[in-house]
Amino acid sequence: MRQPWRRTLVATTATSALAVGGLTAPALAADPVDRGSAGDPTITVPINDSEAGGTYDQVFERAYAGETAEGTPVYVYVPQGALQGPAGVDSLDPAFDHNPDDEFVPCADKGAEDYRLTQAQIDYLGDELKNQIVAVDEAHFGEMGSADPSDPDSKSLVTLVYNVQDESYYDCSVTSYTAGYFAPDFMQSLGMNVIVLDALDWANRIGDPTSVPWTDGDPSNDRPELYEGVIAHELEHLLMNYSDPGELSWVDEGLADVAAFLNGYDMTGSHLTYQQVFHRETSLTRWGGGLENYGASFSYFAYLWEQAGGNGGGDLTPDLEYDGTAGDLLIKLIFAEQADGMAGVQNAIDAFNAQTGAHLRSADELFQDWAVTMYLDDENSALFDLENFDLGAASGGWTVDIANDVFWDGRGNYQGALPGAKWGKLPNRPDGTALPFGVSYEKFRNPGPRVSLTFDGDETTVVAPHTGETHWWGGYASQSDHLLGLDTTVTGGETVTFWNWHFIEEGWDYGFVEALVDGEWVTVPVTDVASGKVVSSNDDPHGNNTEGNGLTGTSGGAYFVDEPQYLQYAVTVPAGATDLRWRYSSDAAYLDTGWFIDDVAVDGRAAAVSPDGEGWIETTGAQENNWTLQVISQCDLTPGRTTPGEIADGAGNFVYRYTGDHITTATFDTKCANGAGSDFVASVSNLPTGDLAVLDAGYDYSVVKQKK
Questions:
Q1: I want to staple 110 with a disulfide (CB 3.0 to 4.6 A). Which of 94, 99, 167, 585 is the partner?
Q2: How far does the signal peptide extend, from start to end residue (predicted)?
């Protein structure tokens, strides 16, 4: 059974910023509520509260109906009564509480007028969808399908506008909010393609406040075309739902931001700002859901689009058309590629080079160049520049250097010689932990006239089996139900034990043990052998544990507090059962390391298991680490010679790139980088491979003074 999930786009209330899977929907199950059809005057929508949990029905009324040039119907719905004013309107008034009996109380500081919607605003947005956004997204990515295969009229787009219940809805101190989301479970519950927009402050977030009549006149509140960009973003998710449902979030979210970019909407602001500030805390490939993750994935794909030629013909400005070449072609190939993550990006690059005769660099090389670009962003460099963005003053005011110096209180900024004793005690030196496909930047000023860097990184990082050389891992895939079957026939009353290690997104993703009883798979309670306590749960805060008996969070400890432990769990086979299996169920967004199973036994006798379909992997649990150390300078640190790995971009930037687990660089003559305003920067990244490529890894390095 596929569980509901949604992709959200987060925005800040203070600045314009950023917070599919599935097979084609099956025929709709019987529903006691007549929910209506797309285009009806009213529809009844099951709304999920992502913070407080629970689902309630809300009646929406149609406020806009249009049709694209290609004949796709486009509708906008608002809560019933919304256009008469927000006060007292369910799902719009911020005082609305769909469950007054729980402990969640709406924030008392919010006023209803901040959620006022007008017909003029709805018409403006509907026309933007009808005349541009749907066409641009479908041309650059792929076509929308029918939400209900039995209903040809369900090939339409429904936009719901309401006050989304998220963390900020209940906590006044939270300054970010869910600006919009795409939830494919609406395809099953409604038989419609649905995108959701939040209703906050449409007066300043729809259209250009300098040219629309509904602005409040205060420029400090302006967030031009914020919600248009959100719709373009969420529509990409909807299209990905028809193209490659299991794609990893970092790819899908990055392409979704690219969708807004290709529609011509301003993508400066908090996504890029947060990436600059939290560069060291951000993995490109392990999605964390923060604004910095959006910034990293978006800027990586924007960089690829530019490096592949943008629109073609030297034009690096989005033209609202799919040009079928250059960067437009590469992005479409990445979107369509069925392999996930970095492997899929590489496959798309290979296809792009084969189709065009180009020699675009590998995905890993482009990551290495992107890492330098996100530090330098030199408009005079063809290699280390984002043409469409000026990191810093024009994009939130932060750069890596400013962030390290101001936000992080001098983190990674070093002055003078650094002998071992001093280097080991520096209070502003960050710990040597690298996230997968992350980047750390540390600056050295006047370290000595001649220095080299020595580097040592962990060769592997391991989630070790409980015993032996291998164990079973549930894999790392969005919106999936991965199955691991017991090879031994079971009967009622038997005890099946297994050793279990799990780090699963608490409350959203789950592991289940299921028994086949009378031809149907049912979940069974799971008990910790040592304590005798039931460790599975029937709690269902977000509709992903409807079956009950789900395992989630961290085995043997508190989620995101304790390290997971290998523990022995047990289940009792229910009467009438003939088979047993393990099912790892994930939604589409954030993923933790996942679920490991080892040493399965039936009534104390060792038993074999095997995967049912793709997903579960027998693995040593080892991640192969592949380190990149880059020294970035705005002068030649090896004058008179070109060293291996040296890159000069012709704009005065020099990069010295080294790869491997144990590195000793060339000797650098730092005379050109001396002085109060000069420096060089060391950048460290891990580009892991292997069955697992999602684990943190440790490293250490030092700057060593060299004699002449």
A1: 94
A2: 1-29
